Please model this.
Amino acid sequence: MSKREVPIVVVTGYLGSGKTTLMQKILEQENRRIALIVNDMGSINIDAALLNNSQNTIVQVEMVEMQNGCICCTLRDEFMAEIERLSNDESIEAIFVEASGISEPSSIAGAFVTYEEMTPDTRVYLKTVVSVVDADRIYREFLHDLMADDEVEDGDVINLIMDQIEFCNLMILNKTDLLSGAQLEEVKAGLRNLQQEADMICCVNGDVDLEVILNRPDFDFEEVEAYSTVQKALNSCEHEDKEACVDEYGISSFVYEDRRPLNRDAFDKLLEEYPETLIRSKGYIWFDDDWKHVQLFEQAGRNASVTELSEWVSAWPDEELAPIIADFPDLKDDWDEVYGDRCNQLVFIGKGYKKAEILKLLDECVAV
Model:
């Protein structure tokens, strides 16, 4: 093989979506030589055990188990070392990576892009990022605003699922046999509200032909990043005074920006009565009771969360801030005399909403 002839396929999807079942079906296909890396967050790799116990061509497949971490963060170095080791096997036609259910695909893909740029002699390249979607769960929990399963304590489950759907170039809708034809069409339409470009394949029990996954254009990070409706809104609606942008699906979007802090109690009240016309919202905010931290706000359907992230640059001590400003003077281009780099920037996506009404609700959250 010449350089960059070993395609990498990253398979993402939330816990229980059917990633392992998909891999079992792929490994059962005859006359193929696939290497598989299985990543599991637990100390015991249950997914790998299931694959080893299956009655298929696993004896012809090299599989690497990665435990106690996620390949998108703590295991990046080990992960790429295994990729390179497998790529030296001339008989391997592709390497599949089954990511942990809580992995963010953009981080994994970003690691690949960075690695390819820094390692020009590598023989591997990112071919496809697959998002396996539990169509039944999307119907029950996203489209119809039901709560997550009782055993799931993290209220941000749906938002993570949405992130996985938004960042892929192939969606595999699994468990479609659990839905009627009309319900399935409703799911597909709902997903197209969020991801309008990636190919969409429906299946039962992860039964997908390998060629469908491999025989497609190569993955393009910037192109896929721009697929999501959130990113499209940011690209085309950069200022709050612009009219909402409407696409061919009837989805409209706009960006809200305001320097002033929000009142936490007022914003929590807004979330309790969040407009049903908004399909997806995402962005950074800050509260008047915390001038230090950036807060990430995400909403999908009736599921919403606010997560504390990093610190605002302007919250750093003066002795640390001064050299940063000296090294990166462009920071001052978007610097407010009162608030520094603090800013609320939110993307809103929906159908049938009135922008003026949404803006009024947000203005009522601004601290006085």
Notes: The chain has two domains: 6-225, 240-363. The chain has 13 helices and 13 strands.
